[in-house]
Write a structure and sequence with these properties.
With about 450 residues, the protein is of the alpha/beta class. It has helices spanning about 1-5, 25-30, 50-60, 75-85, 90-100, 110-120, 140-150, 160-170, 190-200, 220, 225-230, 235-240, 260-275, 280-295, 305-310, 315-320, 325-330, 335-350, 355-370, 380-400, 430-450; strands at about 40-45, 65-70, 105, 130-135, 155, 205-210, 405-410, 420, 425. It contains 21 helices and 9 strands. It starts with a helix and ends with a helix. Residues about 80-90, about 250-260, about 270-280 and about 295-300 have low confidence and may be disordered.
Amino acid sequence: MDAYKRGIGFHRYVSCGRAVGIQIEDYIEYFGKDSEVKVILTYIEGLDDGRRFIDKVRGVTREKPVVVLKPGKSEVTERAIMSHSGALSGSYQIYGEAFKKAGAIRVDSAEELLDVGIGLLSQPLPKGRNVAVITPGGSYGVMCADCCAPLGLNVIKLPKNIINEFDKMFPPRWSRGNPIDPAGDRDFVPYLKAVERVMELKEVDSLIFMGFGNLSSFFEMDSPLFRDMIKFMPEIVPNLLSTFDLRKIDIQQFLPLLNSPFLSSFLAFSYKGVNGDTDEKELSEKVTSSINSAFEGSGNIRTFKGLIDSVIEKIDLVGLILPLLPIIAPIISAGEEIGEKEFVPLIAPIIESSRSDITSITKNMILGIPSFLNPEGMDMSKILEVFDSIMGMIVLYWIEAYKKPIIATTFSGATTPLINLSRGPYFAYPSPERAAKVLTKLFEYKEYLDSSR
């Protein structure tokens, strides 16, 4: 059920029962040769031949990770295993040594089995144990540091030059150390910029990026607080929209790019209202051309989704979004002039390199509008899933750029869905403890690979 809630599927699945004929290491060896299998997750109650298991699995783990869940820490568990599969559980510590020699990554729960599996699919292996933590809340960062220490992760001291640099970015009350806590700064731009600056440090092997993921998880809590927040949407939305300055929009940047009747008509109307001096005939011709182009070949479409797919595929969405970034900047930077100027160069490269994700995210946003406007009750989950995807797109861009792990967490503690993007899967872990455990297992596997070469 945990895998189902997270939206995780399995490419191959086998239950070997009592393994009378084919042993579990034979299945592992078989999947090791399957090029479409990237990570092997295994539940083991006992082994008939430990040496055979080590020899066969070691040949796999040098090429792809094998994660093992092996219960049996107590006599009660050993008796349960014996009655279930007839296997002799044996010493928990002895099995641990066998898995270590085989290069298998041992975990202690089904939850951790999935957590580590996702981490291996979505993250590069860290080169060392040095960790940076960026958190939007001080206590949350302290809890994360407390989780890292017992696992052997080193929450490093920031170099003095970085502290001086962050002094200029954050309010005077910021933490001035690692974990990096902007202390409630409403300007979101330094929060993002700090990630790039930290990831550039050779002293940092990985980052735990806290509170950056899965807004949609709040719906699982079904909290009265959230329902009360929705009541204020009629007041919140106009206030947000009032921060947009339509006079900054140059419609000539958009018209050559538009192939959508919806967007072209809207922008044409906005441009006339703001500027008042447009050539209406010329503008009308461009809008008509856009409409004809958008619906060309769409006569057989029978569904709203089919129509959206057809129209969106013909739009240069990146070309539309880039000119809008200066308009969005005041909201993201909370009106701070420096943050407003730095927002565009920070985000534009991410947008430009994520065209396929931008397309899929836009489709999901449009398809989520009906549920958002449902007269029987506003459902914001689909809209917030769009924000989840955007956050995932940003994190995966950084991971690819810096070749270091960035483990994101949520605030909610709820089970969150896996998001599949063009650069790979994105998952925000519900707690700092789970994030730290995953990071530790990734490093242990890196140590094994280094020692086996």
